[in-house]
Amino acid sequence: MTWRDRLGELPIEQRNLIEGGGLSQRFSKMPLGITHPALIGAFYGILITLTLLLPLGENSNWQKNWVRDWAWIGVWIILLNAIVSHISLLVAGILRRPPVSLPRSIVYPMPFLGLILFTIILITDLENNLPDPLILPAQYFSLMLLLIPGPIYVHMTWAPRWRLLCKLEDNLDPFEGEIYTPKKTELEDLQSDADFDSAIESIEKEPPLINQNEEE
Predict the structure, then answer these.
(1) Is the pLDDT of residue 124 over 80?
(2) How many domains does the chain have?
């Protein structure tokens, strides 16, 4: 049985907490093995690496070694995102905290704003017009807007939710403990007790004819 087969056993509040929003529901439709938080973090790193292709190439004037530099930066971005996401899973397992929904209006536009700002700084003459003390902070701020949303989502939302889904998949109650599943012998005992009680009730309602004859 999958975790979806056991989801109906939970209260509606816990069910909504486990299912999450639209992005989490898209990930939860996939097998849990390929939606490990480290893999989700690495996937976000791949997306960021692809978005940096044009800005870095244009900044280097498409010289011979620009692909090597871009690939080297991309490998580090992917690796760091995967490591940070795996650490988030370990922290979620230690703290046992529930997933938190992030404000979409703030988090979702951040990568696009960071990419726009980073591209403007690299391609245009804005970098030359900025004072020297502001050049590096502007670059770091744009990179922070670009890189931070993915790890924040994994740390606050997906890593705790993935832990809950795995516990539910393993026939465990993610909020209290093990879900009690009666064994076959226990079910047979319960059935026999129910038959015995029903037999007693029928006797009480309809006394045997022997007793009626004795009373007559």
Answers:
(1) no
(2) 2
Has residue 48 been placed in a domain?
Answer: yes
- Calculate the CA 29 to chain-centre distance: 11
Is the four-CA dihedral 89, 90, 93, 95 of positive or negative sign?
negative
Q: Where are the alpha helices (DSSP H) in the chain?
A: 3-7, 12-19, 22-28, 37-51, 53-59, 66-95, 104-107, 110-123, 126-129, 132-147, 149-153, 159-169, 184-205, 209-215
Three-state DSSP at 18 gives helix
Prediction pTM value: 0.72
Average pLDDT over residues 105-127: 84
How far, in Å, CA of 16 to CA of 189, rounded?
Answer: 36
Please check whether residue 179 lies inside any domain of the structure. Answer: no
